[in-house]
TrEMBL record:
<feature type="DNA-binding region" description="H-T-H motif">
    <location>
        <begin position="28"/>
        <end position="47"/>
    </location>
</feature>
<dbReference type="InterPro" id="IPR001647">
    <property type="entry name" value="HTH_TetR"/>
</dbReference>
<dbReference type="Pfam" id="PF00440">
    <property type="entry name" value="TetR_N"/>
</dbReference>
<protein>
    <submittedName>
        <fullName>AcrR family transcriptional regulator</fullName>
    </submittedName>
</protein>
<dbReference type="InterPro" id="IPR009057">
    <property type="entry name" value="Homeodomain-like_sf"/>
</dbReference>
<keyword id="KW-0238">DNA-binding</keyword>
<feature type="domain" description="HTH tetR-type">
    <location>
        <begin position="4"/>
        <end position="65"/>
    </location>
</feature>
<dbReference type="InterPro" id="IPR050624">
    <property type="entry name" value="HTH-type_Tx_Regulator"/>
</dbReference>
Length: 187
């Protein structure tokens, strides 16, 4: 096995293991190495730590899911409808893949949520054209994202606080519609 194959094998193994466990943090270096059929020292060699490997595996997995979302909404011509669809799909992904989503959302929030914010800004620019400055669009994107990111990170608390089941599509639509109404984003 070449070094590139070993690194990729570790990533794919961890993604598979994460899908099959409830608590990602209980996966050990030895389990990963045994499942990937590589020396456990390669985890530190390629990723410096198990946590870095887990983060990269989650990011790889989530990147593929995000690409699928963006592709699925790309044919929608109305930018408001497209943005609502994007947020709905992000919410549905967050609920269905909670153990995966919590990690990159937490990491992204540590850096200000810039990556996802920029994705939303592109669509907001289509909605507002020249009516809002880049600064205003950045703030608006943050106002859209922050409640969703907060809910992702504290899903059980928000289920209780909102007294709803967040895996209900109708409730998710109400949540997105409420954000759009409160921010006065109209079709």
């Amino acid at each position: 096995m070449t070094t590139i194959d070993a690194k990729e094998q570790l990533l794919q193994t961890v993604i598979k293991m994460m899908k099959n466990t409830k608590d990602i943090n209980k996966i050990t270096n030895r389990q990963i190495a045994a499942e990937a059929d590589v020396n456990s020292a390669l985890i530190n060699y390629y990723f410096q730590s198990k946590d870095n490997l887990l983060l990269e595996a989650v990011n790889t997995h989530m990147e593929n899911l995000y690409k699928d979302i963006m592709e699925s909404i790309s044919n929608e011509s109305n930018p408001v409808t497209r943005l609502k669809s994007m947020l709905m799909k992000f919410l549905e992904l967050g609920i269905s893949q909670y153990k995966f989503v919590k990690i990159p959302v937490s990491e992204e929030m540590k850096t200000g949520g810039i990556t996802t914010n920029k994705m939303i800004q592109q669509t907001l620019k289509e909605i507002y054209k020249e009516d809002k400055s880049d600064f205003e669009l950045q703030i608006l994107a943050s106002q859209i994202l922050l409640p969703l990111q907060t809910i992702y990170l504290h899903i059980d608390e928000y289920k209780n606080y909102l007294d709803v089941t967040l895996d209900n599509t109708q409730i998710l639509h109400q949540l997105v519609d409420s954000i759009f109404t409160n921010l006065n984003i109209n079709e």
